[in-house]
Write a structure and sequence with these properties.
Blueprint: H1 12-22, H2 29-42, H3 53-66, H4 70-80, H5 88-92, E1 96-101, E2 104-113, H6 116-120, H7 123-137, E3 141-148, E4 153-160, H8 163-169
Parallel strand pairs: 2-3
Antiparallel strand pairs: 1-2, 3-4
């Protein structure tokens, strides 16, 4: 049997940080920075509904150990996912999943960013890539959620044959 530790936190890195404390160990500055970055990423800069006070406290502790700014880590993480050097295909397929639900084949993708307007300027490119993916993969619908961390909102782009159902759902 394997040991499993399951706790109500937004990031597994919070649990790992607590395990260091429980053992009386201090993570290296580099390890503390990695764990802090993981918490910032998993909790979407503490804005995710799964984020807990334990996540925030641990991230702050790890940031002190690593001499890193949590805001700077967040900027670096969420800017890297959608830089100008990335193709729309690469961005679309980074966090991409396909589902078969009630006889309907669909794909859902999410891009988490800090400047949704910059991505929405490329809306036509995304829609073309999504249509190409729909045809190539034999899907009924492809949806892309562009989630802006700073605005705390999501823009939904979609292509497919069930526009009425999607519009009704939202």
């Amino acid at each position: 049997p394997i040991y499993v530790r399951n706790e109500v936190v937004g990031s597994t890195a919070t649990i790992v940080g607590e395990m260091y404390q429980e053992k009386g160990l201090m993570p290296t500055a580099k390890m503390a920075g990695l764990l802090a970055a993981a918490i910032v990423s998993d909790t979407v800069m503490f804005k995710s509904p799964t984020c807990t006070q334990r996540d925030i406290n641990m991230a702050q502790r790890l940031a002190r150990i690593s001499h890193e700014s949590l805001d700077a880590l967040g900027q670096a993480i969420f800017s890297a996912t959608c830089g100008d050097d990335k193709t729309v295909d690469a961005m679309l397929h980074t966090d991409y999943k396909e589902f078969h639900i009630a006889g309907h084949d669909l794909a859902v993708s999410q891009i988490t960013c800090m400047d949704s307007d910059r991505l929405l300027d490329r809306k036509d490119e995304f829609l073309k890539c999504m249509k190409d993916t729909l045809v190539k993969r034999g899907l009924d619908t492809v949806a892309l959620m562009i989630t802006d961390v700073l605005l705390e909102g999501t823009q939904l782009l979609f292509v497919g044959d069930d526009e009425d159902a999607i519009c009704q759902a939202f």
